[in-house]
Amino acid sequence: MNFNLARQYFYQEIQQPEPQIDLGKAALYIAKEQYPNLDTEEYLNALDTMATEIQERLPEQRYPLRTIQTINKYLYDDLGFTGNKKDYYDPRNSFLNDVIERRTGIPITLSLLYLEIARRLDFPMVGIGMPGHFMIRPEFENVGIFVDAFNRGEIMFDEDCEERLSQIYQQPISSIPAELLQPVSNRQFLARMLTNLKMIYLSQRNFSSSVAAVERILLLFPDAVMELRDRGLLYYELARWQEASEDLKTYLTRLPDAEDAEVIRQVLRQLSVNNDQLP
């Protein structure tokens, strides 16, 4: 595959078995496409340093709540990390290097920072892809708590999560389906980061950057047919008509009865005209 250097690093990282994928490295390789001169080791060392400083502050008895409180005090009180509520859709919120430098981000990137520090402390935590607001939780049996890295490491319980979802959906949620609170895989985590970037760039009509995000999602999940459709439509916007045609035809082959099938066929008819007009 003819990838740029950052994409090659990303591809190599995600080819590893799921548990061995290094989220910090993979996230920095995502950022490296935006910042080609980015030194990934510099930011990995920054994570190491943060973990070392927290390690020195941990109490002798490492109960989960005490460990979380120690991490929270260091990250939010001492270093001043905070959720970026003023400019939530700034693309920089999705790049780990920017999050470390600017000390602000969105739920998933602040969760990533937290997870990477916890991993270095041998304190197992996992990401929870709750709709609308990514969270994390300790991976210990019967702990029953969640951590909201976006809101200063707020400790939450099931009832708090139900209240948060009720606010998001603007209707009462009395019980959260178990699947919404399941840990996400490393590949799912990275795909969610890239989906955020995809949607931010779409809103800015930055189709080149948006298609780059989709291309990496498809490296993670080659059978993600809706991403294949979106890439085809983005190729269309970029006048990459042959590639658009290939993706959209494949989409219809896989989902001939899709709700948007007729719309896609209309796009393909227009693509046929465009291709005929090529010199």
Automatic annotation (TrEMBL):
Return the InterPro entries for the record: SirB1_N, TPR-like_helical_dom_sf
Domain Protein SirB1 N-terminal as annotated: residue spans: 42-194
Known Gene3D superfamilies for this protein? Tetratricopeptide repeat domain (1.25.40.10)
What family does the entry list?
Belongs to the UPF0162 family.
Q: What is this protein called?
A: Protein SirB1 N-terminal domain-containing protein
Write down the species: Crinalium epipsammum PCC 9333
The lineage, from the top, is:
Bacteria, Bacillati, Cyanobacteriota, Cyanophyceae, Gomontiellales
